[in-house]
Amino acid sequence: MELEQRSKAFIELGKQLKSVVNVGGNNSAEALIQAIENARNFNGWFTRENVIHAIGCIAGYLEEEKMSRWLKSYSHAAIKGSDPKRIGVLMAGNIPLVGFHDMLCVLISGHNFVGKASSKDASLINAIADLIFEIEPEFQSSVEFEQNSFSSIDAIIATGSDNAATYIQYYFDKYPNLIRKNRNSVAILSGDESKHEIELLGEDIFRYFGLGCRNVSKIYVPVNYDFDKLFNGLFKYSGVIENNKYANNYDYNKAILLLDKAQLLDNGFLLLKEDEQIASPVGTLHYEYYDSVSDVQKKLDQWDANNVQCLVSNDHAFPEALTFGSTQNPQLWEYADGVDTMEFLYTLSN
After folding, report:
1. 157: three-class secondary structure by DSSP
2. CATH number of 184-312
3. Beta-strand pair 143-145/112-116
4. CATH number of the domain at 3-182, please?
5. Which of 207, 274, 297, 336 is 20 to 30 A from 40, comparing alpha carbons?
6. Is the CB of residue 99 less than 8 Å from the CB of residue 121?
C-alpha cells in the first residue's frame, strides 16, 4: 500500500472510533463495543469510563490534520514501506490500548506488525485490529498476533517494568530493539492554582487509577503549602475508592506506611507522603517542598531524564511543562519515553 492509502485507513478508523465514543457505535464496530463492555471482566482496572477515554484519545489524534502534521516530520523515504520488516511488539497492559500507538507506527511506516498483546488488553486491541481490516482489507497481510513466543521477527519494540526490561533486553539482544522502562510524571505547584486547575491536576493523577507513565505520581510544592486547597480540588475524584482494586491497594499501602510510622496526609481516597522518590504506589501521591524555582530545578536535575515522562506546571519558568489536565491526552508526536518510534523503524530499512 502507498502511504496515502495507509493514512486514509487510519483517518477513517479515527472517525469510526469517534462514533463509538460519542454515539455508542455503528454496525461495523459491534465487536469493539462488545469488547468495551467486557473489558472489566478481563481486567478490573479497565472501567468502561477509562476504556472510552482511551478510545477517545486515539480517535482525537487520528484526525486528518494531525496525521498530516505528524507524517510531515519524516521524509518520504522513512514511510514509503519499500523494505518491510517484521516488527515484534510486546505490549503492556497497564492501561487500555496502550500498545495501539506502536501498532500505528509499525503499519503507517509500511512494516509488518507482529504483536503479543497483554492478556489484560488482548480483546480490545484485537477488536481494533478487526476494525482496521474492515476499513482496509490489505492490512490483514501485515498484522498478526502471537500467542506464545515471537517467531521470525526482524526487530522488537517492548514496554515493561525496569525488571522486565532487563530480561527483555537480554532475550532480544540480537535484534534491533526499542525497549521502554518505568517512568513517572511530576507536577510543580506554586500554591496559587485555582480550584479548577487542581481539578484538572486530578485528571493527571487519577485517570487510569494512576497506573500509566503519564500519571502524576509526585508533586513539588512551596514551603508552607496549604494542602486543604489540594484536597478540596481533588475531592471530585473521591469515587475512585469505589473500585475494589484501587481500594485494596489504598488500604494495603496505608497499612504498610502506618506500620513504618510514616507521616501521612489522608483524605479517605488518597494518601500524601513526603518522599524524594518520584514513583509512588497506587492510592499514594508523593510530595516534596521547595524554596524557589531554582531549587525545584535542581531537584529535577537530580533525576535521570529517563525517569520523568511528563512535567506539569503553569509556571513559565518551565517552558516544556504541560498544562494541568493534559497528560492523558498525548498527541501522535509525543512518544513514550521520548524515543521517536518512527525514526527507530526508519533505521531498520537502512
Report:
1. strand
2. 3.40.309.10
3. parallel
4. 3.40.605.10
5. 336
6. yes
